[in-house]
Write a structure and sequence with these properties.
This protein is 28% helix and 26% strand. By secondary structure, it is of the alpha+beta class. A two-stranded antiparallel ribbon has the order 1-2.
C-alpha cells in the first residue's frame, strides 16, 4: 500500500506588519532609482 505524504495544514494566522515597517518600506521604495546603461542596471538610493 502506498504511503500518503501530506503536510498538516497550518492554522491561518492574521499577520499585520507594524507601522514602522510599512513606513520604512514605502520610504525605501520612493528613494530607489533604477538606471540602465549598456545592458547593465544600477540601483541608486537617493537620501
Amino acid at each position: 500500500m502506498a504511503k500518503i505524504y501530506s503536510k498538516k495544514s497550518l492554522p491561518n494566522k492574521v499577520m499585520k506588519p507594524r507601522k514602522e515597517v510599512v513606513s520604512f518600506l514605502l520610504n525605501y521604495s520612493k528613494a530607489l532609482s533604477m538606471i540602465e546603461i549598456d545592458n547593465h542596471s544600477f540601483e541608486i538610493i537617493s537620501n
